[in-house]
Amino acid sequence: MAKYLVIVESPAKAKTITKYLGKNYKVVASMGHLRDLPKSQLGVDIENDFEPKYITIRGKGELLSKLKRDAKNADKVYLATDPDREGEAISWHLANLLQIDQDSECRISFNEITKNAVKAAVKQPCKINEDLVNAQQARRVLDRVVGYQISPLFWKKVKKGLSAGRVQSVATRLVVDREAEIEQFIPEEYWSLIADLKKGKTSFPARFYGDKKGKIELENKQQVEEVLQGLEGAEYVVSSIKKAKKTKSPVPPFITSSLQQEASKKYGYTAKKTMSAAQQLYEGVEVEGIGLVGLITYMRTDSLRISEEAQAEARAYIQNQYGDDYLPKKPRVYKSKNNAQDAHEAIRPSMVSITPDQLKKTLPADQYKLYKLIWERFVASQMEAAVYDTISAEITANDYIFRANGSKQRFAGFMVLYQEAVDPSKRDEDEQDKDVKLPELVEGDVLTKETLNSKQHFTLPPQRYSEAALLKALEENGIGRPSTYAPTISTILQRGYVVREGKVLKPTELGIVVTDLMKQYFKSIVDVKFTANMESQLDQVEEGSTDWVRILKDFYGPFEQDLTSAEKEMEKVTIADEESDVICDKCGRTMVYKMGRFGKFLACPGFPECRNTKTIVVDTGALCPKCGGRVLEKKSQKGKKYFGCESNPTCDFVTWDQPTKEHCPKCGGSLFDKKIGKKKKQYCGKCDFERGGE
Q1: Any catalytic annotation for residue 282?
Q2: Helices assigned H by DSSP within 323-437
Q3: What is the pTM of this model?
């Protein structure tokens, strides 16, 4: 019988830790929270200092009984849940349920699941941190009070099934407000004037700047014509040259938000997908030659702190692989934001010695890509800066001035390993100068003018948020914390307040209506500064400097007044469902689009008399290789896209591979795209023809 019982959240984590602790320890999983507020009622006694009424989560009774037996049979119980507010709260609930003395040293935590970290944690148990628990309780109660008291009002006044949430409502507002900016945007005309100049055999562009008095903005064609007249017969002479050395420093290691943003930009991952893969890397993966090991540090963090041991390991790797030129004299230290929780480190590999190449055959593609991203970013963050030689030339033509800029990399530095991604939703603004390759220029050079091109432009409206851009906006505005970014975006998508259109997020009519009502009746809830201030107060609870009940009391007074006013003044709002062109085959009505858990579906407007629903049929244009029917885009129960024959279940053809409208040159059948790593091959569903993929 094991002398010590260690309780963690997940079986994967339990499996990894079991390997390190030996036969005297039994490691079991609580499967997350064991108790929570009830779903069927508010579960908060507002009159009695907002006391939460916790109940055992449905379906967890048998697991709780087993944990109680294990705890009774152990000499000592260690609570080893995640090292954050949520993890501390799970440990606190476990201590209550298992009757563990909360003043005893029963809590252990580690930032990485490696042998050394786990063994060190067991040797240094501590008490449960009640400040962390109170911060989690305050957030949970606050979110419950807001959600459970506004949502029923929206059910009554707008639409059944709606929900309002403290953080999700602000996130939705950001998307809605951006849409309003786009709609209200009035484009303004401006012009560019580019001279294509030549010295020797090298041509390069120079952009019109102005005259000797200063910059001139070209706002209309008339201005451009005047400048062009003034340039007739002009000699283009290099009037000044500025040469400089520019350095580009590496970016810091990842925190939760920057990891989610970069994975979105580089791989198109949702925040939810990124966190799922990161969780698996943290909890433990079987590595050939090493065994089961947690590959990265804890992935919910907003701190840029790095341990001295990790810095030393990275520096040793850099010196060994790249040489002294790539190693700064001192380790690089990055400063976290003022509101960052510094208990954790930044996200980094738990062992730099485990390189991405070693894991390529071991890890699934999602995990491998994410590990490679984290590993390269961390190692690069400890490398020397990249160095560029820059040149800026001013060219005089009669009374006017043109400018040309160029740069050349002198030393790659950290960029030999890692380069930050560009948000794919961002426009490549044609009015922005890009560094070009310039010939050797000296003052007094007379250049040959090849062409002089003017072009009309109009200012562009703000862009819709990509998921990466919305994550950045949430972080910059202090809305939410590392653990809330991914669930917040998932929630507003699932609720149908926001939809994905390609790579950007767009508000639905429902999202706009709900946001407008929130602005009118619950102004503070959707106020960005108010929400950020509330996050700061929760941080103060965690630090032990503010009482959590006091925060809730200060919040609830004005909120209760808003509720009362909204109940009296809010008029019923009708949102018409969007009609489709599909006729209900049960009652003959025209079916409408509804939003469900896995996106849009078709429903009969005659509900509840007629409960007919259908999935939305998306014709891919391809033909079934088995029966010749149409191949349709479909969704699995988990919302994953796949393709199947319209004659299902009569015809059982299904595939994950993307159908194309192209036909096989050999037999005329439809071709399908199949991804093989980064490559893509096409194959015929009917015969053995295939191409690409080499």
Answers
A1: no
A2: 356-359, 365-381
A3: 0.83
